[in-house]
Amino acid sequence: MDDLASELRPGGAHAAGSASDSGSPRIASVTEVRDAADRIAANIEKVIEGKSAEVRLGLAVLLAEGHLLIEDVPGVGKTTYAKALARSIDCSVRRVQFTPDLLPSDVTGVSVYNAEDRDFEFKPGPVFANIVVGDEINRASPKTQSALLECMEERQVTVDGVTYPLEAPFMVLATQNPIDMEGTYPLPEAQRDRFTARISMGYPDRRAEIAMLDEHASVDPLVLLRAVSDATAVRSLIAGVRTVYVADPVKGYAVDLAVATRRSPEVRLGASPRAALHLLRAAKAWAALEGRDYVVPDDLQFLLVPVFAHRLLITAEAHVAGRSAADLLGRIISSTPIPGSNAGQR
Predict the structure, then answer these.
(1) What is the band of 19 on the pLDDT scale with cuts at 50, 70, 90?
(2) How far apart are CA 159 and CA 168, in angstroms?
(3) Looking at the predicted structure, is the pLDDT value of residue 133 above 80?
């Protein structure tokens, strides 16, 4: 893999670290992206013990301009993680508690008649923030969940025929309980497809849980958490991630992985072209977090389950046999050829 990686490096110099066009964010170097991500991750881990991989995956999604879905049983730190990530960045943060009676206008905003001006005035909803924490998103009705579709994909909200842009960075960081829990609705396929990745927190190990008991017994560590970055810096980091190079054969490998899910007899709904795009964007961010300015096949393999698994619908037969989407993706990784030794040629 080291020989292959050497051929996947970019052939030309990047503009990372240089000033960009007027009005555009500064482009951070890959080293700056890695160092900033390390600082933010260390800050989050003051609150979340023993979950380094999950913390870094969330940062990769943020820098890939994506959205993150955190799914697990109640009480394992889903909302705490979301709050810790949001508080580590000095930017606008809004929280939405999804409930069965929540309306779409409660999320996006509503036009209210102003008697004094004799005109309608738009009152922005909580999606008008840099980071939107959606708590227990699958407790709201599918109609309300769908209110997020436009803003997650197009970074804008349309109300009464008027379109309002959302400020960058923009990230929806949603938590949900497993679908077999009481009072939950399944997320529509279109909604799941807009989440770049899904992670599960899982139960902490014994050492981490003891540390949690010590640290949370007297004071909530979230209260003491201070920002270590801001929106301007994050925009610069995102611009740096965009410069990460992807060789053509690696792009082909991402497509091959997506196509393999569509051709599997155990899958009713495979990965969409949007899923392949999200995989590539996440891989660029992950490479930058690792200090590289180029993507290698290992990046795609590592991210395949977080990025693809929540989008796949497996057949009833596979489900009865106890096979999961993650199991299927593991077999796809094993059976899909990686790019050859001549992959780095432009």
Answers:
(1) low
(2) 20
(3) yes
Q: Tokens representing 337?
A: 């050829």
Residue 289 burial by Cβ neighbours in a 10 Å radius (0-12, 13-18, 19+):
buried
Residue 91: both structure tokens together: 């930017």
Question: Per CATH, the architecture of 26-243 is what?
Answer: 3-Layer(aba) Sandwich (3.40)
Angle, vertex CA 62, rays to CA 159 and CA 200, nearest 5? 100
Instruction: Give yes or no for a contact between 80 and 175, defined as CB atoms under 8 angstroms apart.
Output: no
Give the tens place of pLDDT for each residue, 38-72. Answer: 999 999 988 887 788 999 999 999 999 999 998 87
CATH architecture of the domain covering 245-337: Orthogonal Bundle (1.10)
Could you tell me the pTM of the whole model?
0.87
The DSSP 8-state label assigned to residue 311 in this structure reads: G
Helix H segments across the chain? 2-7, 30-44, 52-63, 78-87, 104-108, 142-145, 149-154, 189-193, 206-218, 221-224, 231-242, 248-263, 273-289, 297-308, 316-320, 325-335
